[in-house]
Amino acid sequence: MRIARPKAARMLAAALAIGLFATACASERDDEESSGDTETFVFGAAGDPAALDPALASDGETFRITRQAFEALLEHEPGGTELIGGLAETWESNEAGTEWTFHLRDGVTFHDGGELTGEVVCANYNRWYNWTGTYQNPTLSYYWGSVFGGFAENESEDTSPSNYVGCTAPDEQTAVIEIAEPSANFPGAFSLQAFSILSPDSLDAIEGDDPSGEGENVTFPDYSQEAGTIAGTGPFSLSEWDKSNGEVTLARFDDYWGEPAGVEELVFRTIPEEDARRQALQAGDIDGYDLVAPADVETLAADGFQVPVRGVFNILYLGITQENNPALAEPEVRQAIAHALDRQNIVDTQLPEGGTVATQFIPDTVDGYSENVTTYDYDPELAQELLAGADASDLSVDFCYPTEVTRPYMPAPADIYELLRADLEAVGITVNPVPLKWNPDYQETTRAGNCGLYLLGWTGDFNDAYNFLGTWFADYSLEWGFRDEELFEMMAAASTEPDVATRVAEYQALNEYIMDFLPGVPISSSPPSIVFSPDVNPPTVSPLTQENFAEVSFK
Asked: Is pLDDT at 215 greater than 90 in this prediction?
């Protein structure tokens, strides 16, 4: 479908260029709206979505889109990290933290006309629990595995036993989810976009449409690659995924239970290069984009664009895969790599103002951050000594980095890679570059353990240190390729500790243990910027990058 763009967006760049006032644009928009054209907000995305079923995804570019159409039981307050009701208006747990009761909102309708009930919630959770075959591949079930462990019948010996017991619906407006052991993942995990609720007709329609493949060669099910098969409850419904043009289009859902969306149509257009996104905004072709290059923030603001900055809630790290890389399994080699990296240079040259060098695998805005971790200052001479002592002076490594993407913690992946590569080569390490497209190649390859070194990061899903540490170090994974039972036991103890103060102290001890072991190198934390045209009323920006685009309207 051809999108009818409001004339104000096209007029804005010209007005800025010749110094006219933006008020002229408002009158033009009014004229355009009165002619009956659809009011459309276009957002420049840094990468393609992986799928349109959020249960199969794990990346922010996918969730930015699906969040507008699908909703979970809980949400976060606008602009903050406190949990509030989503599809559940209220919720509570038993004293042990093993039984979670959700009281659902009345009158919630799915895009296909279905009604939200406790049985529908249970059907969704039971669907994920009973996944088999390729669905159990972490590429597709990453969040289920991270939160609940395994499945009703695990098909791999490396898959953890499931912590999910079951779901019951004592009445139409109530769902009760039971887990075997309490976990620090809850209740935060009930806000995850991956656990959004699909309509009962959607569940029927996609039954039997299965993915295929093994390892990193996974093919997503057909239904997840086109719009219109599945329905959620969000303020927008999915209309079209035009892969040839890199556009996903959503339409306002007029029967939404909450405040209606401020625009009729929402388009996410993939523009991988940051410079191209900026130029598209300045030309009036898009109305906003995320992850503004630090060098562009001042210029865009001076030209009248709105450039809000989010709070810091992320980590960029250099991952190290020890399995199948004997040299990288040596502690002295990992220490050498850490000392070889000039991380302050990354912060100074690649990150926006407010970026910091990371000393551990959580940002200092999360409880559990420790001031007593072992640090690895930039020291190339020490790095060379450590390599020589480990008989690894001729070390050669494959270094994977993503292309066609920008992440909140990683504004310029190729540039960051080049700086790190130069640091490593300066101490005698031979670096073999492995550039991979973000979706789907990069994530599949790193999670399959096929990179010696790789760049990845994490923006917190909810405000608990386990959401960071447990994501990586709760158990064995191919991505890291190590088995440290003491670490895994410490993670399990912290996860099930009911007292918050005690749990925070255990997180601090975990950070200290992890940085002694050094499975990878934390690089930085960054406050990512987002930008909107002057004629836009923007959404409330979120430190979790969970903006609700239903809040968007035009002035």
From this structure: no
d(Cα 217, Cα 380) in Å, to the nearest integer? Answer: 38
Which residues, in sequence order, are CB contacts of 104 under 8 Å at separation 6+? 87, 88, 89, 116, 117, 118, 121, 173, 174, 175
Closest CA to 108 of 179, 50, 173: 173
Cβ–Cβ under 8 Å, residues 516 and 400:
no
Taken in order 252, 59, 541, 124, is the CA torsion positive or negative? Answer: positive
Collapse the DSSP code of 512 into the 3-class scheme (helix H, G, I; strand E, B; otherwise coil) and give the result.
Answer: helix
Task: Give the H or E element holding residue 471.
Answer: helix 466-473
pTM above 0.85, yes or no: no
**Two structure tokens written together for 393:** 């002076």
Is 427:383 a contact under the CB 8 Å cutoff?
Answer: yes
Q: Counting beta carbons within 10 angstroms of the beta carbon of residue 303, is it exposed (0 to 12), middle (13 to 18) or buried (19 or more)?
A: middle
Of the spans 280-284, 403-407, 462-466, which averages the highest pLDDT? 280-284
Domains of the chain: 7-49+234-310+529-554 (3.40.190.10), 70-224 (3.90.76.10), 314-525 (3.10.105.10)
DSSP 197: P
Give the Cα separation of 145 and 484 in Å (integer): 19
